[in-house]
């Protein structure tokens, strides 16, 4: 990737893509799923609400506007079900899942089996984008010169791999190895990125809680104790880094690519994992070919800023110091202090000044407000207050910058 720092995007004030839905949209989605209203009614409400939320983002000063993920049920959207070779399954055998994968473990601890999932049943092939029409509608709502700023979020390429036990992610008579399976996933994402690029998209963000799971000691202990696993957790992390690098290998040079790591963001503001970035930082920052890292930093479960010493000077970090999970507002001055603290570690790691390090930094909420369409334990006004706070922090630290 380029040795130059990619700017605008990302911007000094960012959010992570998902925004709270209106009651009307939630009710219409439920009615559509029950067969009570036609699809055209749902689409009409989605488009009206997307138009409104884009206008809201512009008024709040967010250049990298998203559609709020309003057309999605969960943050990962429809990429995998839209591929040949994958099928949505309502009742997956619980024995197919790794019980120590943090999101799976959370369901099992609550006495629930994991919900609907997507499984590989045949050779994987990209047969058309399920995201591009959503992006085109989003692009129609802003002036042509602003289209390049718009952000679309993508499902992690490893999402339907880590959660399944060894030997359960794909049929052995279809793929002989992870490398072969990952190869077709990468080809599918190369095709997706090109289609989005051709539609004018220049700003994508992968959402990947899985990578943060490699910081969680419970998950790591479960992995080590599982006799089915062929290789270590660190070996799998390396494979995922290579998978991402293959996904972006053919991307155009002027397409900004970011990745968001968090520790889970489910209904009612539930998180799934804990652990600092320390044990993955060097590989994450130095070997993963992305421009920007959107990192969760709102609570001690994410650890401290010391791992940012490994952030190279040609990459950005957006610091998620403001929580999206709960309505209580953070103290603005304390958040500014934390941003400067993070910049000191970047400066130390690269032997540059804090002012130079700040050029690689932005701020955001730590995660989306509605990774699941029902949303977090915060109401609409609370969300707006959080977004205003993020914008104010950015204005104070980087006056006059988007």
UniProtKB/TrEMBL annotation:
Pfam families: Meth_synt_2. One of its GO terms (biological process) is methionine biosynthetic process. Residues 179-378 form the Cobalamin-independent methionine synthase MetE C-terminal/archaeal domain. Gene3D superfamilies: 3.20.20.210. GO terms for molecular function: 5-methyltetrahydropteroyltriglutamate-homocysteine S-methyltransferase activity; zinc ion binding. InterPro entries: Met_Synth_C/arc, UROD/MetE-like_sf. This is Methionine synthase. It comes from Aspergillus sclerotialis. The lineage of its organism: Eukaryota, Fungi, Dikarya, Ascomycota, Pezizomycotina.
């Amino acid at each position: 990737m380029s040795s130059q720092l990619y700017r605008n995007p990302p911007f000094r004030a960012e959010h992570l893509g998902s925004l709270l839905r209106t009651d009307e949209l939630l009710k219409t989605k439920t009615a559509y799923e029950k067969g009570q209203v036609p699809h055209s009614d749902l689409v009409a409400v989605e488009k009206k609400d997307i138009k409104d939320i884009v206008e809201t983002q512009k008024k709040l000063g967010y250049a990298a506007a998203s559609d709020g993920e309003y057309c999605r049920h969960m943050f990962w959207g429809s990429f995998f079900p839209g591929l040949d070779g994958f099928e949505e399954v309502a009742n997956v055998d619980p024995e197919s899942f790794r019980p120590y994968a943090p999101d799976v473990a959370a369901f099992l601890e609550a006495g629930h089996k994991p919900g609907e999932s997507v499984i590989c049943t045949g050779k994987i092939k990209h047969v058309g984008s399920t995201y591009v029409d959503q992006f085109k509608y989003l692009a129609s709502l802003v002036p042509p010169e602003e289209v390049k700023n718009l952000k679309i979020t993508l499902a992690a390429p490893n999402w339907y791999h880590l959660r399944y036990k060894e030997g359960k992610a794909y049929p052995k008579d279809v793929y002989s190895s992870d490398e072969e399976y990952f190869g077709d996933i990468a080809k599918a994402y190369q095709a997706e990125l090109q289609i989005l690029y051709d539609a004018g998209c220049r700003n994508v963000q992968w959402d990947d809680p899985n990578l943060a799971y490699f910081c969680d000691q419970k998950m790591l202990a479960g992995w080590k104790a599982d006799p089915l696993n062929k290789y270590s957790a660190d070996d799998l992390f390396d494979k995922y880094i290579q998978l991402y690098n293959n996904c972006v290998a053919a991307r155009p040079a002027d397409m900004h690519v970011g990745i968001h790591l968090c520790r889970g963001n489910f209904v009612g503001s539930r998180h799934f994992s804990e652990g600092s970035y320390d044990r993955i930082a060097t590989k994450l920052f130095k070997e993963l070919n992305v421009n920007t890292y959107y990192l969760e930093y709102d609570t001690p479960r994410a650890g401290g800023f010391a791992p940012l010493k490994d952030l190279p000077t040609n990459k950005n970090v957006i610091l998620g110091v403001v929580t999206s999970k709960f309505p209580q507002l953070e103290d603005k001055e304390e958040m500014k202090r934390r941003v400067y603290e993070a910049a000191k570690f970047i400066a130390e790691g690269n032997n540059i000044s804090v002012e130079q390090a700040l050029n690689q930094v932005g701020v955001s909420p730590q995660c989306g407000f509605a990774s699941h369409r029902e949303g977090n334990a915060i109401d609409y006004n609370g969300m707006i207050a959080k977004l205003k706070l993020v914008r104010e922090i950015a204005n104070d630290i980087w006056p006059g910058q988007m």
